Amino acid sequence: MLMLHPAYQTYMGVPGLVFAWAIFLAGLSLFSFLIYRRWLPIRSGAADPRFDSWWKRLCGLFTYGILQKRQPRYLWAGVIHIMIFWGFLILGLRSIDLVTQGLGIPILRPLMETRFGPLYSTLRDLFELIVLGACVWAILRRALIRPERYRGSHQFEAYLVLGLISFLMLTDMLYEGSAFLIDRPEQMPWLPASELGALVLQGSDHGFLTVAHTAGYWLHIVAFFFFLNFLPLGKHFHIITALPNLFFRRLSRGSIKPARWDVKDMDDLDRIGVENIGDFTWKHILDFYTCTECGRCSDNCPANAIGRPLSPKTLTIKLRDHCFETVPLLGLKQGEPGEDEPESMVGEIISGDEIWSCTTCGACEEECPVFIEYIDKIVDMRRHLIETSQNPKTFNQVLMHVEKTGNPFGKPPSKRADWIEETGAGPVRILKKGDRTDVLFFVDGYGSYDPAAQSMARSIVAGFHAAGVDFAILGPLERDSGHQVRRMGEEGLFQLLIEENMETLSQISFQRIVTCDPHAFNTLKNDYPGTLPVMHYTEFFAELVENHSLRPQGPLDGEDVYTYHDPCYLGRHNGIYRAPRKILRSIPGLKLVEMERSQDRSFCCGGGDVMLWHEIEQEEMRMAEVRIQMAREAGANNIITACPFCFIHFEDAIKTGGLEDEMRVVDLMGLVVST
Amino acid sequence: MNIIVCIKRVPLTQEVDLEVDERGTDIRKDALAYVINDWDNYAIEEAVRLQEEFGGTVTAVCVGHEDDEEVLRRALAMGADRAIRVEPGNRELDGFVVSRILAKTLRDLEYDLILTGVQSDDHNAGMVGIMLAEELGLCHAAVVTGVEPRGDEALIRVELEGGVDEVSRIRLPALLTIQTGINEPRYVSIMGIRKARKKELSVINVEDMGLSEEDLTPQTVVEEVSLPPETEGAEMIEGDPSAVAGRIIQIIRERGVNI
User: Fold this and answer.
1) What pLDDT, on the 0 to 100 scale, is given for residue A343?
2) Which among B31, B188, B193 has the least Cβ separation from residue A414?
3) A157: phi then psi, degrees, rounded to nearest 5
4) CATH number, position A614
5) Which of A266, A396, A409 is nearest residue B191 as measured by Cβ atoms?
6) What is the rounded distance in angstroms from the CA atom of residue A257 to the CA atom of residue A246?
7) I need a labelling partner for B206 at 20 to 30 A (CA). Which of A24, A91, B94, B224 fits?
8) How many residue pairs bridge chain A and chain B with CB atoms within 8 Å of each other?
9) How far is residue A229's CA from residue A223's CA, in Å, rounded to a whole number?
10) How far apart are alpha carbons B3 and B59 in whole angstroms?
11) Is B170 or A331 the better-scoring residue by pLDDT?
């Protein structure tokens, strides 16, 4: 019995082709319109150069997009997502085939009639079942396990879309399954989904099967176009935007974007920072569209963990909603975001406390499967707050001190090298203009003036002496690196510090710069112009340990158990995980355990910038206290760090927690030189 | 409401080991960083807030050299509309001379209020504001912690000894010396200060003002500046916190405080 394709049948005298074309044209027009409306905010977004390094971008697209490398960081959710994603890739071809069949231009038929056809059919059927299973699994997971990280996400939309995807699978199974029963081909590949459909329909009469076949087709087509047009309305826009977002992802690490990419001289700018949605760069708008609301960012955010009013996910959702409201799909507002907005974005939609809660630790960015950026956005909003004097008042003096004295304490530059004498570190050569040295030890403000950090600087000096390194410091010529200042949003002051430090560095001859503080390391390496030969001391000494210039001697008694805390700006932002561990492993008798959250999932200590001078009232516990707890859970009674701020925060947390007898914070280099 | 704020740039002396200069009449200032006098910062903020609420203009005035223009730029960045610097040349200045120069500068300007800081960080004399008011024949109040204009008067809050506040009315125009804590001065960013370069800053030379030699002759002579002698009697208390606390209580009791 011959079976007519549903599109070639007539319905109440109207040919099916007419319906197919009507659905196709309506669906495509509406979709084009939606995409156009969504394109408007991107078009008017600020400049952002993301068109370089095509090969690197393509490789990333493959690794993180096609292979979904970050998905399995949450194992089961990741597996489900990968199954659905790969299903989409494979079934996309099927959808094109079905739609074009209906339009009377079956462009894929030649391909399907080759040997590829049966192979593809089997794969298609297999993935229809896999996707269906994954959807059911995902629905059950959401409904029964209810992961905390989905709180505040659009749950209804998630269920709707999972249902819709399942519906697409089921209608195709109905379509193919009924076809089997009506007219089973003699030779056919293994088609498990179609067989399953046939099994369900087994025993139905011919009339019913025909109806099922026809209905299966049309429902599939209608659902397909409904789905397509539903995507740009919410979080499932990521199905369209995730791959572009991955392609245009940020390639540099650790740095903060300039005030504006397209304006070199900040003096030419009327406003600095982000106040309205239209001030974000086009890529940052694309980020908002791409958020899947999976909540991995907030799940890893230390500010969120201790009750501060910041959740990266909520931040993105709020900004996306605001973006959608500013440029609505319908309405008279013609696409110029930022004009006569009823509600101001920074201050009302996103509160100051939200913006100041971030430690810029980068845990959210490390986790996001689609590489949404947060730090640049937050710093951009901070810039606006600083430029309009809406910053916490405690910053006023700190920033004034940095401007006037080159350090946040307001201590005179002439005393910048006094730590040498105060800590008995000597001898240390202090450079003057025109001098030369092999290693330039960049001490930075805390190392120079803060007693706890001074002792770290002294240990580094002891290390230099032990290994016979030719080193010197800038002393009074040095100004703060400006890492903190930049992340607090005072870009003008940061540029001033760069200018002064670069001027000094240009007058001294050195082979490399070694820093005590990972923050100074990061900013000199990633924020300063050009490429300074800068290393953090852990990298430098790891090299010396490797070539046996530095040999930790005295074995530890083995009674203490140590754990190493990865500072954010050494680890996540610069990928230095091995060097500090290499040094530690060279210490005979050192018992080292890893915390559950280590390396790229390290939990921030509280941070080296805003938190030093501003307290967020809502926090329930200090980050450092949480981290100390993690170290204890790992079975350690010593927490090692290689960052002065971590050291200060941990020391504080141990004291306030009354844990002096049970926990100790150890500076990595201090531990090395003590042996 | 038109407001004039008189401001000054002073050395940042905290954390610095001050040294007396060769002549023994001043401290060595060559290595010091300079900032806006703290009290004046509050005065500018107060002026800008009043202007934001009641309209009018804010003019910042400074008697000083070119380097001192920095604090005028800062005032402009905070919201002042224009600035005037009076160049004193090499003349020696004291509170008297500065108040006479300011009086001459302000005499022909229109104003409802003149604000100065209570005192300056460096000399702590607290004279300029009051002498300026006297010279201009204005009503004045010192150590003001609150200003509320009411028509041709202003309700002002003044801090008295022992933490007592006095609220009174003052006829405008008037001169008020502003106490720290009256407000929270805003931060002005480096870019804000740079942008304020576009605002008007005029310079007047003191020699062109027609001041008499008497007006320009300092009335105070510094004989000697010295650092306070190091005194004995500091006791470093060592031991665990409870022992330290115990010893502190003991000392307090010994000195006759009942606790």
Assistant:
1) 66
2) B31
3) -60, -40
4) 3.40.50
5) A266
6) 18
7) B224
8) 57
9) 10
10) 6
11) B170
Count the Cβ atoms, other than its own, within 10 Å of residue B36: 26
Convert the pLDDT of each residue in A110-137 to its tens digit: 999 899 999 999 999 999 999 999 999 9
pLDDT of residue A335: 47
CA of B224 to nearest chain A CA: how many angstroms apart? 25
B185 contacts in chain A (CB < 8 Å) = 396
Please give the sequence-ordered ranges of beta strands (E in DSSP) within A394-503, or none if there are none: 436-442, 471-473
pLDDT of residue A329: 85
**Is residue B165 predicted with pLDDT exceeding 60?**
yes
Q: How far apart are CA A36 and CA A281, in angstroms?
A: 18
DSSP per position, A553-608: -SPP-S-SEEEE---TTTTTTT---HHHHHHHHTSTT-EEE--SS-GGG----S-S
Select from B29, B34, B41, B187 the residue whose CB has the most chain A CBs within 10 Å, as the one to mutate to test that interface. B187
Residue B84 lies in a domain: yes
Concatenated DSSP letters for B98-113? HHHHHHHHHHTS--SE
Residues A516 and A640 placed together within one structural domain of the fold: no
Write the single-letter amino acid at A562. Answer: Y
Give the domain CATH number at B67: 3.40.50.620
- Same domain for A371 and A427? no
Among the partner residues A386, A410, A496, nearest to B15 by beta-carbon distance = A410
Q: How many whole angstroms separate alpha carbon B139 and alpha carbon B168? A: 12
Instruction: Clarify whether residues A429 and A352 are in a common domain.
Output: no
Q: State which residue of chain A sits closest to B186, comparing Cα positions.
A: A389
Q: Is A295 within 8 Å of A150 (Cβ atoms)?
A: yes
Check: CB of residue B184 under 8 Å from CB of residue B173.
no
Bridge partners, B208 (sequence order): none
3 state SS of A272:
coil
Calculate how close chain A gets to B39, using CA atoms only, in Å: 14
Measured CA to CA, the distance from residue B25 to residue B50 in angstroms comes to 40
Is A399 part of any domain? Answer: no
With a cut of 70, say whether residue B153 has pLDDT above it.
yes
pLDDT at B132 > cutoff 80: yes
Virtual torsion, Cα B210, B211, B214, B219, nearest 10 deg: -160
Residue B232 included in any domain: no
What single-letter amino acid sits at A498? I
SS3 per-residue string spanning A25-86: HHHHHHHHHHHHHHHHHHHCCECCCCCCCHHHHHHHHHHHHHCCCCHHHCHHHHHHHHHHHH
Shared domain for A381 and A449, answered yes or no, is no
* 8 Å CB contact between B88 and B64: yes
Please check whether residue A414 touches B, CB under 8 A.
Answer: yes
B82-102 confidence digits (pLDDT tens): 999 999 999 999 999 999 999
Which one of B9, B45, B191 would you mutate to disrupt binding with A, by most A Cβ within 10 Å of its Cβ? B191
Contacts of B16 in chain A (CB under 8 A): 412
**Residue A518 covered by a domain:** yes
Interface-testing mutation among B38, B182, B190, with chain A (most A C-beta atoms within 10 A): B190
Sign of the Cα pseudo-torsion (A162, A165, A169, A175, in order): positive
Pair A260, A269: CB distance under 8 Å: yes
DSSP string for residues in B199-236: SEEEEEEGGGTT--TTTTS-S-------PPPPP-----
Distance from CA of A315 to the nearest CA of B (A): 26
Residue contact A492–B34, C-beta within 8 A:
no
**CB of A495 less than 8 A from some CB of B:** yes
Whether B129 maps to a domain, the answer reads yes
In which domain, by residue range, is B94 found?
3-208
